[in-house]
């Protein structure tokens, strides 16, 4: 007996030693992560996106020509030419990156005049020098076409007179440099001095030598300098130059009615060289600095208030453990910030919302652990906070991993298929999910287990917040409602909700944003409030009958139209200024038709892949009927959310796509937690009918669903109330999705799983030997009255 007691004591001591050792390892890991994050946060600033600090973002797409393919190599050469042009413009901290084989993303912080930037970047700057063959006029005054397009071309000069030009004698490759100069002595004003290379000097002398053989005043004595198929200068060779000699020295001057800015830009284009292939602006976004500052301030207030309310709620429900979880949330914020800085990721406005939203996901993991700990504490005969916590973390790990993986799938799809600031949301969301797992499974666990080992806590277990099952769980256990008694009624109710929402799409239609339709959107801040109808009428009179005008905030106004050029934009701005007094342009977004088609196609691909990926993951992780039920519930949520925005007249844009994919992840989270509990109950109980098991799983996981939903709802409500219009719509979509997702995971997914679960025929128990011996027929007769169907585990 004494030896047996010694062995028992040794095993207990070994378990305590192992527990202490693992706690120390986790504590050291947590300290290392916090210390590293703090060091990075103090030394490396996070790079803000242009929608937060102001500036212009331009997406250029290279185009093939008959002689040059716009492949990756041509795009790389084009990028280097553009980099030289931007450096010459003097823009601080510009960013140029190649996106795919045909796209170049240009970010210009502090540049709020997109017209100037686009003109400098978008011009091909193909410089050529041509001998003039004569005027291109017919007898009746019409422009005569080129007789041989391979050897000559017809272009109008700066006065509008069409000239016949010989094929190019010199190109931009023959130019060594160009400089803008001001002629103070001669009074000619600004001009551009062009210096030719050694081979270019010989070609220049030859073309001027031939031109000098014609009499003064003859058009053939002129030499045309062409930039991007436009004659920018066509001077006559000076009469002092003799025939056959030409102009030596290898330089010339381009004169015209230039001001200083135009002369410097022309010199910049010529010096930087021609683009290997033409480029087209397919997307352009300009954000004013004041709008970015206001967005940061609003999001910061929303994050602070939402986090504070969430922390108070968690502390009120889980007491000491809730307080420690709040401390872990502060560490989560530090880790997320440091990860953004270390990776060099850009924090955009939707990304800032994702950062705030991930706080709710970090709360979700803590709630899963604490609710599971409450169950373990209530189920044990001699419970202690420490043993219940260890079992709670162990039991909740599977559900936490599954739910976060589904959210990471949505984040990956956003990064792969979204564009602009919305892609930043995908990055921030992924970082937030990973940081929340570190916060909940490492830091929160260290703090909770350390507190649970204190003697004062051991003597007063109720102070931990896990010694009681909670008000929601107690009420459910007392009433024990059988929610899955008639699952088809819940499915019918879900179908009715989906039909009502879908009718909004048919009746009201969808208000697609310019990301999906293409066009231009300009937001103005006016000194006095302007009625949208009045502005719409004024723009119609100005020649823009199809412009869509909407109010934005108290004194803001947005104008959206297709094919709005820079000249049209100036007219629209002038019209709004006449109505609203002092007017400031705070946002300007241009999406080309090709980019709009691509973003619309990518949105459909992302949505389809999201549903397919969730189905595949759940089918592999659970079973096919679980995955099918979850995806049907997701489709139900998607239809209701899109229909709600149709009824409300809210825009369907890139930010809405981010919200939609996040809702998919949120909804799957709830379904995963429920299915994980159903699977666990099935493994322990193979005799209870499946509807009753599912009902038990719903009642056991509903407290977690309510508490995590409250935590996320508090943060999202703060965003909806305090943030700007874009983030307010984002938060509204998530609030609707949160409510619908909670409903669908309990009543749609669970009900459909109950209907799809394959019942098995009642098994025939083996008769005993005495039954066989006394069987009247002498055979293995079996008598059974069991009628309840058995369900496979």
TrEMBL record:
Coiled coil: none annotated. Keywords: Cell membrane, Membrane, Protein transport, Translocation, Transmembrane, Transmembrane helix, Transport. Residues 76-132 form the Protein translocase subunit SecDF P1 domain. It is a multi-pass membrane protein. Residues 778-793 have a biased composition (Polar residues). It comes from the Bacteria. Residues 154-277 form the SecDF P1 head subdomain domain. Residues 1-21, 758-793 are annotated as: Disordered. The keyword Metal-binding does not apply. InterPro entries: SecD, SecD/SecF_arch_bac, SecD/SecF_bac, SecD/SecF_CS, SecD_1st, SecD_SecF_C, SecD_SecF_C_bact, SecDF_P1_head. The chain crosses the membrane at residues 298-318, 323-345, 351-370, 391-418, 424-448, 490-510, 603-620, 625-648, 654-675, 706-724, 730-757. It is found in: Cell membrane. Residues 280-450, 574-756 form the Protein export membrane protein SecD/SecF C-terminal domain. Residues 761-775 have a biased composition (Basic residues). Forms a complex with SecD. Part of the essential Sec protein translocation apparatus which comprises SecA, SecYEG and auxiliary proteins SecDF. Other proteins may also be involved. Belongs to the SecD/SecF family. SecF subfamily. Part of the Sec protein translocase complex. Interacts with the SecYEG preprotein conducting channel. SecDF uses the proton motive force (PMF) to complete protein translocation after the ATP-dependent function of SecA. This is Multifunctional fusion protein. It comes from Streptomyces cuspidosporus. The gene is secD_1.
